Amino acid sequence: MANTIGSFRVDIVESKESTLNPANVKLPGVALNLLKLFQLQPTAAAVPPLPEGVRVVTAAEYKQAAACLADAFAEDDVVFYPIDTPDRAHWTKQEKWALHVEILEYVTYAHILKGLVTIVGDFEAVALWMPPASDMDDYLTILRSGMWRLNYRLSSEGRRRFFTEFLPLLHDTKHSTLGPRDDASWYLVYIGTSTRGRGKGHASKLIRHVTNQADKDGLPVYLESSNKKNPPIYRHFGFETVRTVYLHRAERNVELDIMVREPKSMEKQ
Ligand SMILES: CC(C)(COP(=O)(O)OP(=O)(O)OC[C@H]1O[C@@H](n2cnc3c(N)ncnc32)[C@H](O)[C@@H]1OP(=O)(O)O)[C@@H](O)C(=O)NCCC(=O)NCCS
């Protein structure tokens, strides 16, 4: 995810194989190589067998899924890190909330296109997953999901926090933590249960849906935990904190626990 969105600001990539002169389109702050854009197609992720009560979100439902996540992450320091900036001190709560929802709509849509988005109930809980060897680094996904709009929707400090600090930190931390297994792991990017749906086992269903498959395939599962309340919950599913990283640009450092779940031997279960 990280590089992905960060990388679309790096702009033109010349195709070594092609002798054609790449045509470029200019978007605010973005120059896209149309050849690269049209060569890349979204790929459907393999979906682990769905347990009762869990289903995959369709593109038509992205707003409902994002609304659930927005509710779940209403108090989250990491999610608000690029929104609650000193240069947006004049914004009302409603304006910040609208941007919060908008960002989650882009992120959710990108995961519908290139990852896996699952829900329980009537959008009571939502999980955004990136399956092994998947990413949303291509221009088509950035365009189709609306992620490119963050280039002008975030403030100048918001862009610095999001593109030059947050995304590279997430990307580099995942890469250095998992090493060669980075591409052979499941990534739980977001999980949230709406306030009305908590404590009913919804998140458990969404997590176990994928951890069961990861166990069968012998793959680790990776996540960043942004809330101090959550590591005990994740430990309950077999995740362990392997390191802690920090975002430094706000008044107080924002902490993220990096957790990895090693695959359980199927024989022991
Ligand atoms: C964290 C969150 C997703 C949990 O959702 P939920 O649907 O209420 O969780 P569940 O009811 O499925 O409970 C999860 C499991 O953890 C267990 N659990 C709950 N609190 C626990 C604790 N303090 N210690 C250990 N286990 C705990 C539950 O017993 C349950 O396990 P079980 O199914 O084996 O009984 C939800 O509180 C949330 O959305 N929080 C805000 C957003 C957020 O922080 N998301 C995570 C980002 S890192």
* Major β-sheet annotation: 7 strands, mixed
SS strand fraction: 15-25%
The shape, in one word, is globular
Number of helix segments?
9
**Alpha-carbon distance between the two ends:** 32 Å
The H-level CATH homologous superfamily, spelled out, is Gcn5-related N-acetyltransferase (GNAT)
Beta strands, count? 9
Helix residue percentage = 25-40%
- Structural class from helices and strands? alpha+beta
Radius of gyration: 19 Å
Number of domains in the coordinates? 1
User: What would the CATH topology be?
Assistant: Aminopeptidase
H and E string:
HEEHEHHEEHHHEHEHEE
Q: Widest sheet: strand order? A: 3-4-5-6-7-9-8
Average of per-residue pLDDT values: 86
GO molecular function, one term: acyltransferase activity, transferring groups other than amino-acyl groups
InterPro entries: Acyl_CoA_acyltransferase, GNAT_dom, Trichothecene_AcTrans
Pfam family, one: Acetyltransf_1
Domain N-acetyltransferase: 126-267
Give the structure's gist in a few sentences.
The protein is an alpha+beta fold and 269 residues long. It is 38% helix and 19% strand.
